[in-house]
TrEMBL record:
Gene3D superfamilies: HUPs. This is choline-phosphate cytidylyltransferase. It comes from the Eukaryota. It comes from Gorilla gorilla gorilla. NCBIfam families: cyt_tran_rel. The gene is PCYT1B. Keywords: Coiled coil, Lipid biosynthesis, Lipid metabolism, Nucleotidyltransferase, Phospholipid biosynthesis, Phospholipid metabolism, Transferase. PANTHER family: CHOLINE-PHOSPHATE CYTIDYLYLTRANSFERASE B, CYTIDYLYLTRANSFERASE.
């Protein structure tokens, strides 16, 4: 593990390392290239030469509202060659306001943003708008990395023209869809939204440069939005409650249908045409009919043997003490007729 105070040669020898501190400033570090600085070609640098030092690559810019497009450009500059040391120049507020326009972040904030980018090895404060031979020699710069779109500024059609002619320019690719101008455009387009947001977060109208009337209007809109949000929450809760009631009702109806089918099935099994109740009724009816129908009784009893010492006793027929009731009128009439015939025989 190496810290940010090591020299460029030591960093090159150790290769990849874990970052434990922000990148140093060029005017506050001893990170100087001590090896003989011979001029390199791009082909030589791509082969990993020279072996005794890293290739020193320089990238510059304003880096206002540091974003992923900036980081990707620096990543490309860092990985142009197998062994490279990336120096990043950041222009001051005076130069930027003079040649490009007002910035959102001041120079100190922009310097710090670059120091904490993982691809940056060293930050050069107050970088020149146009690179001079003296500046390139002072920082032992081998190549300059930037996108190859001509950058017209400070009375020149392309501030990197002389660098390209010297064979020291290496192009990088811009990231589409993200830039500082795009971010500022979003803020300006939705100015009212962000003004209301910051008022709600506790910023004063004076800090936001908002007039008294606009402040009242924004605060009223915030109250209206709060009411809308409450109504929306109530509606969502009501919908959830209705959905839960519908689900429970559906479950109850489904259970009731299942129980109804079960009850009807049990009823049919018991009272249907072939049900158990019919069979039980038939069995009980047959038992009652058997109980009501008369049994065959003997007409007369067998003759007793006469004793020689006693006189013979008259014979008589045994009548049943108990008779079962007739099962029908016809059976009753038949029983009466048989009894009358028996009386006549006795006579």
């Amino acid at each position: 593990v190496a810290n940010r105070n090591t020299t460029s040669e030591e960093v090159s020898a150790k290769g990849k390392f874990t970052l434990t501190a922000p990148a140093p400033f060029a005017d506050e570090t001893n990170c100087q290239c001590q090896a003989p600085h011979e001029k390199l070609t791009i082909a030589q640098a791509r082969l990993g030469t020279p072996a005794d030092r890293p290739v020193r690559v320089y990238a510059d810019g304003i880096f206002d509202l540091f974003h992923s497009g900036h980081a990707r450009a620096l990543m490309q500059a860092k990985t142009l060659f197998p062994n490279s040391y990336l120096l990043v120049g950041v222009c001051s507020d005076d130069l930027t306001h003079k040649f490009k326009g007002f910035t959102v972040m001041n120079e100190a904030e922009r310097y710090e943003a670059l120091r904490h980018c993982r691809y940056v090895d060293e930050v050069i404060r107050d970088a020149p708008w146009t690179l001079t031979p003296e500046f390139l020699e002072k920082h032992k710069i081998d190549f300059v990395a930037h996108d190859d779109i001509p950058y017209s500024s400070a009375g020149s059609d392309d501030v990197y023209k002389h660098i390209k002619e010297a064979g020291m320019f290496v192009p990088t690719q811009r990231t589409e869809g993200i830039s500082t101008s795009d971010i500022i455009t979003r803020i300006v387009r939705d100015y009212d939204v962000y003004a209301r947001r910051n008022l709600q977060r506790g910023y004063t109208a004076k800090e936001l440069n908002v007039s008294f009337i606009n402040e009242k209007r924004y605060r009223f809109q915030n109250q209206v939005d709060k009411m809308k949000e409450k109504v929306k929450n109530v509606e969502e809760r009501s919908k959830e409650f209705v959905n839960r009631v519908e689900e429970k009702s559906h479950d109850l109806i489904q259970k009731w249908e299942e129980k109804s089918r079960e009850f009807i099935g049990n009823f049919l099994e018991l009272f249907g045409p072939d049900g158990a109740w019919k069979q039980m009724f038939q069995e009980r009816s047959s038992r009652m009919l058997q109980a009501l129908s008369p049994k065959q009784s003997p007409v007369s009893s067998p003759t007793r043997s006469r004793s020689p010492s006693r006189s013979p006793s008259p014979t008589f027929s045994w009548l049943p003490l108990k008779t079962s009731p007739p099962s029908s009128p016809k059976a009753a009439s038949a029983s009466i007729s048989s009894m009358s015939e028996g009386d006549e025989d006795e006579k």
